[in-house]
Amino acid sequence: MLKKTIAQLDPYIPETPLADLEKETGVAKITRLSANENPFGTSPAVKQAIQNFDFTTTRLYPDGDANALRQAVAVKLSVDPEQLLFGCGLDEVIELTARTFLEVGDEVVEPWPTFGEYKLHCQIEGANIVDVPVLDDGTFDLQGLIAAITPKTKLMWLCNPNNPTGTYMPLADLRNLLKQVPKHVLVMIDEAYMEFVTQENGSAIQLLNEFDNIVVMRTFSKIYGLAAMRVGYAIIPKALISAMQAVRLPYNLNSVSQVAALAALKDTTFVAGMRQKVATARDQFERFFDQAGITYDQSQANFIFFKAPQVNDLHQYLLQHGYLLRNGLKPGWLRLTFGSSDENAAIQALMNRFYATK
Ligand SMILES: *Cc1c(COP(=O)(O)O)cnc(C)c1O
């Protein structure tokens, strides 16, 4: 009965609700540092906007074009509002991309490790994924990515900064790579973490006028701290936008989410504060890992990927002491979302204690 492609699918496992996990483990309070959520919450302007939401409109379908949000995002990024496609989270944009472009037997190129949803949705469509392992320092193998392209390749996924490695590909490298990608390949550039980058202004939005086979994707879930509201979007080439809009569900973005995202977008002070706090945490963890002799990838995101001796024991130890990290993305490695400075200090103390007794 099932589609062939679904029978052997490796599903994306969502995070267990914290209350359930606390019950399961018997740990009184668990802080989740496994999902790259914002430990500092959400802009207070969002709370205000939701409180002001006009409840007489709940019986009406939402604005299917998310017009207020669309205009605001377009102005902020200096892009054509017509080129914006909104999704119920960036997850939906990823699904929509696979649904719109892929047929059975098509090929898709991605670095490995990277965000698991790309592969999942490509597999559902029956496409073949070509994983190109990252280099020893976690950065993309640019030559390998180009070499993996064949006449059958339809899509290339590039997450920048990459999840889970956190590594950042400078704009100049991206431009060089794109120059070598044939025009029949659509390059999906996932910038879920771009707002955390402090190294340079590296958004591929600056390349939209140079290449008509690139899509840039963003989300409100990470730096804006709005994961619960499910708002992501992409800037789509003009030649492709109407096809993608036709595949999209007409009311995919609910009214409250539209209001919340608009308020979040306007609070630039909140975002700037997050960028600063995360940059500080990054520096601090790099120093900590250097001192501890622990290998890590150079991150420009709100998380860090490190090679943890006795990885499963450490993961379990931290969980028992109230901190959930992400295990299983690459054997021997853990991904840690930066927490508040107190949480970060507590984790470092726990890791010191764990390794001192080993
Ligand atoms: C979190 C994440 C997303 C999904 O974001 P949502 O908008 O919450 O669906 C997409 N891409 C990457 C790389 C992510 O880490």
UniProtKB/TrEMBL annotation:
- Specify whether RNA-binding is a keyword of the entry: no
Q: Where is the Aminotransferase class I/classII large domain?
A: 29-344
InterPro entries in the record:
Aminotransferase_I/II_large, HisP_aminotrans, HistidinolP_aminotransfase, PyrdxlP-dep_Trfase, PyrdxlP-dep_Trfase_major, PyrdxlP-dep_Trfase_small
Superkingdom of origin organism: Bacteria
Q: Which Pfam families match?
A: Aminotran_1_2
Which pathway does it take part in?
Amino-acid biosynthesis; L-histidine biosynthesis; L-histidine from 5-phospho-alpha-D-ribose 1-diphosphate: step 7/9
The record's top EC class is transferase
Cofactor(s) recorded in Swiss-Prot or TrEMBL: pyridoxal 5'-phosphate
EC nos: 2.6.1.9
Q: Which GO terms describe its biological process?
A: L-histidine biosynthetic process
The reply to whether Mitochondrion figures as a keyword in the UniProt entry is: no
Catalysed reaction, written as an equation: L-histidinol phosphate + 2-oxoglutarate = 3-(imidazol-4-yl)-2-oxopropyl phosphate + L-glutamate
Classification via HAMAP family? HisC_aminotrans_2
Q: Which family does it belong to?
A: Belongs to the class-II pyridoxal-phosphate-dependent aminotransferase family. Histidinol-phosphate aminotransferase subfamily.
Q: How does it assemble?
A: Homodimer.
Q: What is this protein called?
A: Histidinol-phosphate aminotransferase
